[in-house]
Amino acid sequence: MQNYPHTMRLQRFLARAGVASRRGSETLITAGRVSVNGIIVTELGTKVDAERDAVCVDSIAVALADKPAYIMLHKPSGVLTTMHDPQGRVCVASLLPVDEFPGLFPVGRLDADTTGLLLAMTDGQLAQKLLHPSGHVWKCYEALVDGHVMEHELEPLRQGIMLDDGPCLPAQVELVGYKASSCTQVRIHIREGRKNQVKRMFSAIHHPVLTLHRPSFGPLELGSLAQGAWRLLSDSELVDLHNALKGQS
Ligand code: URA
Predict the structure, then answer these.
(1) Are residues 213 and 146 in the same domain?
(2) Phi, psi for residue 215 in degrees, rounded to 5
(3) What distance in angstroms lies between residue 40's CA and the mean position of ligand 1's atoms?
(4) Is residue 2 one of the residues assigned to a domain?
């Protein structure tokens, strides 16, 4: 069966609508108290279309709240930032709660080999603002780069280095330390989100990126969220994100 973006299992639908816990919703279903489009459904695996099907409990209509969902994912390496890959490679859809929050999509992208904070939401308007260059939300990246970087070599990045698709906005860059095997740990904050931007910036100063991790996006921080795990943003994180867009943080 094709997984339509707004379909989910009936017990999940009821739980999300706040009728009962998932387990409690299962009990309601098996007790014959739930109907879909006028027909009593007792099968637990039944899928419903949250936008089109009429679900009732004890003949009272149940609907999902329209509140959008905002999620942060700790993206592991080797996972594509896409909801579907025609070649069947692992993508973030397999890590996100897509049944629970139909219509989730990633905001921007991290390369397959980049780890770190990836936002996903169902709010197209906010996503558009975050992705628009005028949004200018600072993104922090920790990179391990090839070679022994000298402080003065970072200056072009701070000034706004020229790439083949135009000049970058000035970045904030710090040398964090040197590794024995002739690599350097750096931290960089950028406001744009051009394709492979950090990798291209360091290649332009002849220190290609070996590994890349994004610990924060604007005011949002991964903290101790495990690789591959997700969590909902708190209300205050959402306020902070809106404020960051207004240039207040
Ligand atoms: N810059 C990159 O080069 N890659 C990423 O994944 C993110 C920023």
Answers:
(1) yes
(2) -80, -20
(3) 50
(4) no
**pLDDT per position in the chain (249 positions), as tens?**
334 557 888 988 887 777 877 788 899 999 999 999 999 999 998 999 888 899 999 998 888 766 789 999 999 999 999 998 899 999 999 999 887 787 789 999 999 999 999 999 988 889 888 988 777 799 999 999 999 999 999 999 999 999 999 999 999 999 999 987 799 999 999 999 899 999 999 999 999 999 999 999 999 999 999 999 999 999 999 999 999 987 644
Specify whether the CB–CB gap between 106 and 83 falls below 8 A.
yes
Domain identity same for 111 and 223: yes
* Cα 100 to ligand 1 centroid, rounded to whole Å: 29
77 CB less than 6 Å from ligand 1? no
Q: Structure tokens of 103?
A: 């219509």
Q: Is 123 a catalytic residue?
A: no
**Residue 2, token pair as written in the block:** 């094709």
Is the CB–ligand 1 distance for residue 7 below 6 Å? no
For residue 154, CA distances in Å to 39, 142, 184 come to 66, 14, 12
What range defines the domain where residue 28 resides? 7-62
Q: How far is the CA of 157 from the centre of ligand 1 (A)?
A: 15
Question: Do residues 186 and 88 share a domain?
Answer: no
